[in-house]
Amino acid sequence: MxxxxxxxxxxxxxxxxVLQDALDILDxxxxxxxxxxxxxxxxxxxxxxxxxxxxxxxxxxxADKTGAEIKADFWQSGTVIPVDDSIFLRHxxxxxxxxxxxxxxxxxxxxxxxxxxxxxxLVWREHNEDKCLMLSIVKDGDYIGYCGIxxxxxxxxxxxxxxxxxxxRHGIGYVALSAMLNEMASRLGVTKYIVRIExxxxxxxxxxxxxxxxxxxxxxxxxxxxxxIEKCEEAGLHLIDDNxxxxxxxxxxxxxxxxxxxxxxxxxxxxxEGEVNTRPPVAPM
Length: 285
Known about the structure:
single chain; disordered C terminus
């Protein structure tokens, strides 16, 4: 093993020990409130020297602990959710990996990469993290995509859904999300969400509008500097078409802003029958 490999292993082991310290404090039954434990974790990790690493590890520890609890609470009511006669939702299974990655490979971002394997491995790992509450969509016994929540540690949960291309535009997204949202309401008491959609993805916009989502604004997911945003917009002005103009009107922004931002919707789920479960939500920590 060369020096660089030894260094990486030391750094990895150190990070794991620091993360375990954080989890031990959060799990301790010592009468302290969660806020007091969180402050103790931050103090302990900051003493180890790297404030930025400490902040990231605290966020990761909290997300992992919160996500694991929420995921366990959700699935304890049943690991299979019927959608219709041929479709059901279930927890993510390792055998889903190949088709899940087939869906990811269709992304223009992935197609532009010379070495796709490391990125695809990372995406699959994130799909299985405790902070992600993902549900596999199965039709006639075959995995065809997924829907779920990207990060249950966030104050408002963001919905995700992807299907194999051959199963889009068949109404599957609507019935799968309806079933998922009904279960989120009944099992966890969660009914408020955000959805982020590319301005050119009209099909997803129509899907979530059909589910009751309302435009709430636009957001720059890449946190670029203003000068970079302006350059991006200038370079893409020729891409503005009638559809983009109509979307811009709906969100009350200049069409050029859609070249550097994504759409954000708010979805308050009331259920197919106009009712929701009144059980208090499992609040993210």
